[in-house]
């Protein structure tokens, strides 16, 4: 039996014309294109066709996270500009100062612990804004700052924050983004990036899925800014994944067990849903047999053994990204690279506001 192939960062690279990076969403959510990549020969479809591609009794699992207005513009007392991206809101703990957040800060000179940054001056209202105290460095390699807001962070972000559009979207956030960079079923606030595969679902598609007899369930994974973090080492063993909070409730565990009993497929709407489900399954020798919640830094790449998800709906991802590695692990590296080649030739739209594809889990290769 041949040894498994060893992959490096270069194996997940491809040349993407810049004009294929979608800067705005399609006029209608479900009018996006859908590349059906379940078989060797790709089929070009439209996303609204998805219900007809699933079978009655299949289970479609969504991520119900809600994107917060996590980007803040401000300045130091010296007048120097500061831009913050709130990575997560820290739960209040007894004996600890309340209203803390962890944030990435961009400034010509980093603010020191004990200092303050005033955010929200761009609101254009006299007296607008608030002062955040810098408590110190935090996170892996001290890459984050711990800040204390004067009141509930969610309320202040909603009032003064901006939609945290990805770095490859070049325009400032607009009212369109507040609506369209959010799923129609978003419930639990905490993400700083959208679960983009689910941006294509609208009420008519959800209704058609229900009429088709496709069941649904929810997980939560609060997508962090680390989802855009580049991989900087050719040796993938040296890459350190970011951590994100997730929850798989008991109702979803039961729904998956019932789908299995019916002999039906479990379909993940997006890589974040897949990461939550497979992370939960790894926590028990028996697989996904109980509710799970906590932090996950799961790194899925070729060679990973999937235990839950049979089908995956996903957008097109950045070259050399961990998400390219994830979809390659799921559907097979050669197959995924061929699908991307087809998508570029067929002028699909890429990344967060781009088009989607439907993948089947590759069968394990054996002797």
Please describe what this structure looks like:
The protein has 367 residues and is α/β, with parallel strands linked by helices. Helix content is 21%, strand content 25%. It is built from eight helices and 17 strands. The protein has helices at residues 50-53, 153-160, 175-180, 203-212, 250-262, 271-282, 322-331, 333-345; strands at 33-36, 43-46, 59-63, 65-67, 71-75, 81-89, 100-107, 116-119, 130-138, 144-148, 188-191, 215-221, 244-248, 266-269, 292-296, 311-315, 356-360. The strands form three sheets. It has a nine-stranded mixed sheet, with helices on one face. A six-stranded antiparallel barrel has the order 5-6-7-10-9-8. Strands 4-11 form a two-stranded parallel sheet. Helix 7 packs across helix 8 (333-345). The mean pLDDT is 94.
What is the H level of CATH, i.e. the homologous superfamily of the largest domain? QueA-like
Question: Residue-averaged pLDDT, rounded?
Answer: 94
- Could you estimate the helical fraction of the residues in percent? 10-25%
Distance N terminus to C terminus?
A: 5 Å
Rg (CA only): 21 Å
Give, in order, the helices and strands: EEHEEEEEEEEHHEHEEHEHEEHHE
CATH architecture heading of the largest domain? 3-Layer(aba) Sandwich
What CATH calls the topology of the largest domain is QueA-like
How would you classify the helix and strand content by structural class? Answer: alpha/beta
- Classified by CATH, the class of the largest domain is Alpha Beta
Number of domains: 2
Q: Specify the number of helices.
A: 8
- What sort of overall outline do the alpha carbons produce when their principal axes are compared? globular
Beta-strand percentage?
15-25%
Number of strand elements: 17
Strand order of the largest sheet: 2-1-17-16-14-3-12-13-15
């Amino acid at each position: 039996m041949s040894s498994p192939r060893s992959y490096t960062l270069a194996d997940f690279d491809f040349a993407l014309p810049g004009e294929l990076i979608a800067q705005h969403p399609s006029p209608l959510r479900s009018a996006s294109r859908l590349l059906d990549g379940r078989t060797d020969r790709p089929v070009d479809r439209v996303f609204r066709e998805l219900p007809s591609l699933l079978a009655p009794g299949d289970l479609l699992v969504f991520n119900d996270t809600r994107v917060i207005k996590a980007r803040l513009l401000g300045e130091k007392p010296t007048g120097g500009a500061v831009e913050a991206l709130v990575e997560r809101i820290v739960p209040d703990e007894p004996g600890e100062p309340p209203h803390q957040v962890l944030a990435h800060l961009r400034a010509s000179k980093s603010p020191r612990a004990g200092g303050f940054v005033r955010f929200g001056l761009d609101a254009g209202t006299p007296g607008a804004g608030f002062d955040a105290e810098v408590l110190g460095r935090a996170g892996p390699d001290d890459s984050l700052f711990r800040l204390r807001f004067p009141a509930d962070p969610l309320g202040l972000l909603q009032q003064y924050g901006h939609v945290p559009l990805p770095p490859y979207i070049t325009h400032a956030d607009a009212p369109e983004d507040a609506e369209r960079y959010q799923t129609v079923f978003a419930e639990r606030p905490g993400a700083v990036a959208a679960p983009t595969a689910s941006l294509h679902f609208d009420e008519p598609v959800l209704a058609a899925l229900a009429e088709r007899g496709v069941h649904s369930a929810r997980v939560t994974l609060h997508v962090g800014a680390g989802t855009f973090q580049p991989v900087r080492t050719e040796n993938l063993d040296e890459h350190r994944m970011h951590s994100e909070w997730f929850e798989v409730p008991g109702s979803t565990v039961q729904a998956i067990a019932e789908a299995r009993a019916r002999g039906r497929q479990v379909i993940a709407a997006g890589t974040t849903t897949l990461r939550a489900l497979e992370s939960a399954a790894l926590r028990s020798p028996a697989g996904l047999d109980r509710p799970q919640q906590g932090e996950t830094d799961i790194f899925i790449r070729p060679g990973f053994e999937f235990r839950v998800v049979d089908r995956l709906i996903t957008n097109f991802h950045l070259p050399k990204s961990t998400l390219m590695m994830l979809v390659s692990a799921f559907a097979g590296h050669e197959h995924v690279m061929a699908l991307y080649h087809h998508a570029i030739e067929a002028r699909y739209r890429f990344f967060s506001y781009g088009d989607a594809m439907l993948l089947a889990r590759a069968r394990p290769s054996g002797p």
